[in-house]
Amino acid sequence: MEYAGRKWFYSYRKLFGICSEPKLISTTNRILSQYSALTKSWETTTNSEWTCRHYLSTKMILNATVLTNALDYSSEVGMRIANPYFEYYATLSIIRALVYTIPSESWNNGKLMSISHSKAINVAFDWLAKFDVATADRLKRLSLQLKAQREVISYKAPASGDSILDNSYDLFELLIIVTEAAQLNSELLEASVKKNASPENFFVEYEHVKQISKFEIEGFSFSDPEDNHRLDYISRKQPQPLNLALTMTEGQTEDFIGAWDGEEEGMFNNGSPANWQEIFDIP
To answer: Rounded to two decimals, what is the model's pTM?
Structure first.
């Protein structure tokens, strides 16, 4: 796809429509300058961190895809009480996907993965405002509404059910635009790495793999062998930060999404890859 003086790997559906072509050119140039400051002093540890950050972003997109598929399923079977959770956590997943690609957000030994909901929302929409302030403000407001509606169920147990909640919004507009901002960032970083970084630094360090695949929450320890497997693959096959659409592989997406499929008839199932495309072009 060619637009705004640049050839893009991804075919953007909505992001390029929220601002003029000259504004997009100036915005991408400013973002690229931020990445250039990073890649001109590229080291192995920096390469490893950003390769893993892009992998994390792809996981957040896949997570949101499963959540919106679950939203469709819960609506079909009349399990409406779960819908505010699916909508909000799909949104939060996509917001995190964007945050992980923002150069001003420090990894801080993996603590970025624990960024609070409120801070993630603020950071993501401050970034989106670089493209268009009005769109960023409107979508931020919607994100806060979805957060509030989830909290209505959790904290207020509404006696009137979901009749007091609003559903007159376009959830997928929000999800697509924020996801595409993350994809655009990843394309610009990939271009900057190719221009400025030395391949001798293209290596994924086990410390970053461990930060992602082994973690502790509220004193409980978790280990994800699939993360370990996927990052091992990346470290062997593509040990530098590629754009998100290129970072995803068919094996990764099938295994991630399929992990949530029920095995018996009538249970939730994500279906074929044709059902995974509402937010992002997933291979």
So the answer is: 0.97
